[in-house]
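From the pipeline queue, job 12 of 40. The input is one protein chain; the requested action is below.

Action: predict structure.
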Amino acid sequence: MGYGVDGWSIFCLPQSDGPVTRFESLGLSPPILRALDGVGYSVPTPIQEQAIPPLLEGRDLLGCAQTGTGKTAAFALPILQQILDHSTPGRPVIRSLVLCPTRELASQINQCFTDYARHMRCKSMVVFGGVSQRPQVNALRRGVDILVATPGRLLDLHEQGFIRLDNVEFLVLDEADRMLDMGFIHDLRKILKLLPRKRQNLLFSATLPKNIQSLASNLLHNPVRVEITPQATTVEAIEQRLMFVAKADKRRLLTHLIRELKPSRALVFSRTKHGANRIVKNLDRDGIEALAIHGNKSQGARERALRRFRSGDLSILVATDVASRGIDVSEISHVINLDLPNEPESYVHRIGRTGRAGQDGCAISFCSEDEGAYLASIEKTIRQEIEVVEDHPFHSDTAKAAKGRKSSKPQQSGRNRPNSRGRTNRGYRGRGGSKGPRR
C-alpha cells in the first residue's frame, strides 16, 4: 500500500493473515534466489519486502530501521538485480557505490554482496583506511562492479587516480546518521561532486534527526520513505534496567555484574577510546578477559576481537559508539552502558545490539551523579522511564538524587519476591543462568 504524505511516498504493510511473502514474489532472478537459499533466506523482513519493489522500479529511497532488520539485503538485492538485468561487456567498472562510517560495517556489507552474488558474474570489493592500500589498488585495477567504502580512503584513492566514479548508477549511504555525527559531511559533499547527476540514491539511517532529513531533501529525488519502526522506540524483547552508581564505583560494579550474570556475550559501551582501554585493563586486573574495539586499534586487532566475540571464545567486548557500527552478532545476551551516551539516539542503537533475531536480551545502564541530564534526555526520547535496580552493592543515593525522581519499588510477589539472600529476582538476569529466554 502506498500513499503520499508531505511530499513523500510512504510504503506500509497492512496487518494481514494472508499468505506469507517470499523472495520469489519480489521480482528477483533465479541466480539471486539460489544465493538467498544458500544463506538460508526464504521470507523477506519487513524492510526488504517494502524497499525492494520500489528500488527495482528505480525509485530513490529513504529507509529508517533499527539495526538487525535486514537493511543490507534491502538495498543489495535490488542493486544486484539491476546489474544483472543490464550487464555490460568488458572489464567491470564501478556501477554501485556504498558508503558507510566504519571498517567493520564496510567489511560486513561487502561480504553480504559477495554472498548474494555468488551465482553472478559480479565483483564487489571494500576499501577502508588503517590497512595497506596496495591490495585494494590491485583489486581496483582488475575491475569491480560494486565498491563499498569509508569516505576517507575512497577520497585518498580517488585523488591518487585509482578510483573513477563517473559510471556510478547506484549510490547508497548506510548509517547516514553516524556518518554525519562523525564529521563526514565535508567528505560526502566532495564525493557527491564526483558522481554522475543521473543515478539512483538510497539513504539508510537508524534515526532521522533534522540533519539527516536535510541531507535527504538535497540528495533524494521524489523518494519512497520506508520506516519500519517509530524512531527511537526500543525492542520489546529487551529488558532495560538502570543502576545509580558513583562514578568512582562504575568499574567495580561492572566486575560484580559480570561475575553474577556470567553472560554468554556482553557488549560494554564506553563513551571514549581511552575509557574503553581502561575498562579492559581493570577487568583484566580482576581476572576477567575482555578486548576493546575503537578507532585507535589496528584493523587486524579489531577483526581478531570481533572474530573471537562472534565465535563465543570471548565473552566481553568493550566498544565505543563509532566502533560498534558493523558489529553483526545475533546472540549478544547483554548490553551494559558503563557510560550513558550524550545523544539519546545512541542509547537506542546501543541496546538494539541485543534482543535480535527474535531473541530476548538485557540492557543495563549505569548512571552516575554527573549523568542525570543524559538519563532524562534518553527517557524522554524513548518515552518511558527505565526501571531502577537498587539491589546492588554500589547503589548511590547521590547519583539517584541527581536525576531528581523516585525509583519504582519492587512489588513483593511473583518474580519480584525477595529470595533467601534478600534480593529480588527482577533486578537483572542472565541468559547463561537458570532463567531462560522469555517466549
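Job complete. The CA atoms of residues 270 and 276 lie 5 Å apart.
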